[in-house]
Amino acid sequence: MLGYTVRRILGTIPVMVLISLLVFVLLHSAPGDPAEMLLSDEATPQDIAEAKARWGLDQPIYVQYWRFLSSAIQFDFGESFRYRETVVDLLIQRFPATIELALAAILIAVIIGVPLGVWSGARPNTWVDNVSSVVGFFGISMPSFWMGIMLILIIAGFFNWLPSAGRETFGVPGERITGLYTVDSLIRGDMRAFWDALSYLIMPAVTLGVNMLGILMRVTRSAVLDVMHEDYVTTARAKGLAERVVLWRHTVRNALITIITVVGLELGTLLSGSIIVETVFAWPGIGSMLIAGLNVRDYPLITGLVLAYTAIFVFVNFVIDICYGAIDPRIRFDR
Prior knowledge:
76% helix; single chain
C-alpha cells in the first residue's frame, strides 16, 4: 500500500507541472492586461508600468513561470492582483463554501439516484423503470444555469420560501470551526443558525445535484441489470433467499464498484462544475472567485485555483481506488 501511494504521488507531480504550464501559457496568450483592467481609467502609463513591475509582469513569460513554479513548490501561489491577499489565504477562506455545496449536492444525488437506479434495474420495463428513466433523463438534460434561474424565480421570487443568493443572514452565524456553516451550527448546538445556513444551501445544492442524480441513476440501473444475470445471483435465488436479500446483498454489493467510480468522478466534476451554480446564486466559493479572477486576468489567483481543482480531483480518485480494495477483496495494491 505504501509503495502504491508513493507511485501515485510521484505520478501526480508531472501532471501538476504540465497543467500549471498550460494554464500559464493560455492566460498570458489571452487578450487583456491585468494592470489596465484593475487600475482606474485615470491611471497614467507610468502607473501601469509601475503596477506591471510590482507584479512581475514586465519580465519574460519563462521568467514569470519559473518564479511561480519555484514558489508553488513551497505552496506559495503568490498574491492575488484583485484581492491583495495571498492565494492560499483566499483558498482557505472560500474553499469550505464550495466543499459544503458539493457535499450537499452529492448527498442529494446519492440518496435519490442510487435507490431509483436499484429499483429500476430490479424491475426493468415496468412503470417503476419508466418513471425512474424519466427522472434520470430530466436530470441529465437539464442545464444547471437554467434550473438555477427557474428556482430563483419560482421558489425565491414568487413563493418567497428561500433566499435567492448568498450563504448566510447577516449576524446569524456564530463562531466558525470547520467553515461548513451547517456543520458548525450543529457542533455549537445553534439550530437557528443551522436552519439559516440550510435555507441558503438548498437551492444551489439541488441545482448542482440534479444533473449528477440523473447520471447516477442511469449508471446504477445499468450496473444492477448486468449483475442480475450473473450465475451467483441465480444460485442465490435457487437457494430460496428472499428477493430483498438477493438484491441488496448479492446484486447491489457487486455493482458498487461501478457506482462508487461514478460518485468519485462526479464529486470532482461537482467541485469544478459548481462555478456556474456559484455565479447564479452568488455563492461565495472558489468557483465564483475564479470567474472574478478571469474577468481581470488575475494570473496568480487563476493558476492557483486551477491547481487546487487538479489536486482535489487527483485526491478524490486516490480515495476511490482505496475504496475498491475495501469493497472487492480481489483488488490488491501491493502486487
